[in-house]
Records
---
Amino acid sequence: RKEVEQDPGPFNVPEGATVAFNCTYSNSASQSFFWYRQDCRKEPKLLMSVYSSGNEDGRFTAQLNRASQYISLLIRDSKLSDSATYLCVVVLYYGGSQGNLIFGKGTKLSVKP
Amino acid sequence: NAGVTQTPKFQVLKTGQSMTLQCAQDMNHNSMYWYRQDPGMGLRLIYYSASEGTTDKGEVPNGYNVSRLNKREFSLRLESAAPSQTSVYFCASSENWNTEAFFGQGTRLTVV
């Protein structure tokens, strides 16, 4: 089983739609969680961190379910500019002061007019 | 404040040639990383450096070496390039192991 799994999509949605992405992780020792956004032929950029209590940033809501080991991202009122690949990221702790960011393969979103 | 700077942006190598990808960050981050990204494979960790003076293997280290020259710089070396190393390479840094990472713009490497 992969460490971090995402539905690859693509998700094709009309402008204004609400879309949800899910991500599951296999290592219960995972410490931190993030959603990144990657535009075509660009570097990944942090979209938002994911906290246990859930968090919201404008049209974006992230949630974490540690018991079920999954993370979600909800995008409301989709814009054309939201078209990108969304990467789920989990930080694994190796001990001492070492850990690593493990990336899912990403979910591609295409928002159409 | 440039963030993470990678050079070169593009490179074509012949099989067997060597090269070094350079990466520098100006955010005083402790941790630095090298990833490769291939279609359908996502981002895979090649090597990382948790702090100045330390380096460790990631998921796909074979065929690569790294040097954490100082706190700012983390280079990736291909000693004898192979076509399987054709990829997009990203350098990243983070303040610590459990904080968000910031990425460079990537190096598109083709080995022919």
---
Amino acid sequence: GAVVSQHPSWVICKSGTSVKIECRSLDFQATTMFWYRQFPKQSLMLMATSNEGSKATYEQGVEKDKFLINHASLTLSTLTVTSAHPEDSSFYICSARETSGRETQYFGPGTRLLVL
Amino acid sequence: AQSVSQHNHHVILSEAASLELGCNYSYGGTVNLFWYVQYPGQHLQLLLKYFSGDPLVKGIKGFEAEFIKSKFSFNLRKPSVQWSDTAEYFCAVNGGTGGFKTIFGAGTRLFVKA
């Protein structure tokens, strides 16, 4: 089946620094990738939809200047948490939708971010 | 606005008991429906999906779900659970007026007692 990877799986950083998280589709091309945030014991909250070669579409309440998304190729999307603060600590999950048009999304393993 | 609701936040069952997890959605148009499972410490995995056709969908590990359009429901079932089914289960919907954007329910934590 389709595989999506994320890097890093864990990151600890100091408050005020920026952190970049990569999401890659390993064996398929993904025109669209999605970024989610999952708080402890809660569901996934969609943050933004990332389309290759264009600007990301952010959900209401998500700061686009805080969470920078770049989808430069059909296999890579990045999420940069700028000037991270402790409240940004969370589990960030990406998913990718195949270019062929199937509606199934394949999820990455997630990145746990801890901001001190 | 599109929404997905899961009826139970926590379910505790003994092994061999039958399972039914409720999921209702609020979406306009033709939708695609999914159930995902997240085992402790692991990432989301697709259990089953419904796009069209037979409303009774069979997935992996003995799970099945039934799409009832008139009730806007997509309940997950398993006739006999195992200890290894302990996990969190998420219902998700996309399509219709929401396009490719997938909305997840709040999740149901299932704990199966051995």
